[in-house]
Amino acid sequence: WAASLLLAHLSVSSMAEPEVMNKGGVPYSISNPPGSTKDWIGTPGHYSTNFNTNVKGPVEHFDVYGEVRTKYSQVYWTRNTPINLPPDLVKRFDGKVMAITGYEIDQVTHEGPQTGSTTKGGILGGFSCFPECSGTDKSVPIYHAYNHHYFGWLTGKDSEMYDMDKPIHVPNPSYTGLRSLPNTHGFPTNIVFKENPGGEYRKSYHGYPSGYAQLLHSPTQWVVEPMQIDTHNRKYGINDEVGYQPWFLPKAQQNNMTQLHSGLSPLIECPCSNRISRKVVTSSTILTSGKCPATITSQSECTAAVQALAQVSSSSTINNASRPAGCIMVPDTMKTGEYQAVFNAATSSQSCSTGQGPFTWDGPHNGTAIDCANGGQCLPSDPKFGCTGEFQGQCTWDSPEVALKQCSAYDECQGFFCSTVFSSKLLCFGRSTTVTRRSTTATDQTWTKVYKQAKTLQGEADLGGLVNLS
Fold first, then answer.
1. What pLDDT shows up at residue 270?
2. What CA–CA distance (Å, rounded) separates 141 from 230?
3. Are 112 and 136 in contact (CB under 8 A)?
4. Taking 70 as the threshold, does the pLDDT of residue 373 lie above it?
5. pTM of structure
6. Are residues 61 and 132 in contact, defined by beta-carbon separation less than 8 angstroms?
7. Fewer Cβ atoms within 10 Å of its own Cβ: the N or the C terminal residue of the chain?
8. DSSP codes joined into one string, 391-437
9. Alpha carbon distance 425, 254 (integer Å)
């Protein structure tokens, strides 16, 4: 149900008579014509809205198309890839000044060629032609695709586009900025065309009085940044002139402020929908103690997880209950800096551990704690650890000095957490994990073991704990 249409700009330069792009229907008119108000003051007369006759001298025109693709209810509000102007015009005005005496805009479907399009896959751009390529164009009614507003820029070779650190908010938000590069000619290097028109943009007259023009030195590209809202009921063709045909609404639009009887889709009220598609990205963490809360389930998944962290020399599947289940990252002793991806398909209760070998203590860290995670990371109150037995189900010691001595002697103990919150005196709680968190009590302290193997990844590391990023 995707729709594809083009915002077509007919730029008229003061230099063959152009056809009016938006002919038929309501005629062009100018603001405040003679006699339009009772207090009108001016010189009576008639001002032509014909782009050919309102300028003394010949005029020529060219077409530029910016591509838009949407699904129903989506808002396309982005800057397209810059569109190259027709090569003949670029060459003709290189080092010279183009005088622009007017322009028109329409939203159309286009069945002809799109020569020189800058669209690449899902990154949309557009194309241009001289003098025109609009023979197959069909206008899209405003009730099928609503243009809330647009920015458009004509840029020259002596200008550059950049992203501003902070957006402008007037007349509409945009991060797009244009600036001139050093030059000696002194003429404008870029022009902005901006409207906040709703449905009026096609019949608003954009012509300048005879003798006036917008000047641009060495024009090269057109940049378009539309805000386009898809209100097209797919039971009808996008070019069908059937009037507004209501369709379903997103839940966010169904409230007591929604205008259901205005003759226009409520989606034009700037809905809180967008073109950002949700994508879940998974990545793996390295565990050097404990067990994986979410294990990797196949050799191919294991290999991909290790490849995301380091170069893989080989991959294999084992079935060994004496080793941690899931994905194991093993340094390759024959290839320095490379790792074997080993998937263990066995059902195993074995924890991942780097407890063999030397370690140092990291601590104390003030204002931190180590959680007990439903008991799974608590060091049990076992006499072999020298626990005081003062806290049910958890091993405690009466001082950091005792905790350092007792915890150092056992691989099961990976760190400890000391606090006065849970007793009238200081208690140090043994933990089988090194994962700390920020504590709301400034006097809380943690110590954790840091193994030489963990620092250099010389040893085995259990890959798991998938992190979902959305």
1. 62
2. 11
3. yes
4. no
5. 0.56
6. yes
7. C
8. STTS-EESSHHHHHHHHHT-TT--EEEEESSSSSS-EEEEES----E
9. 58
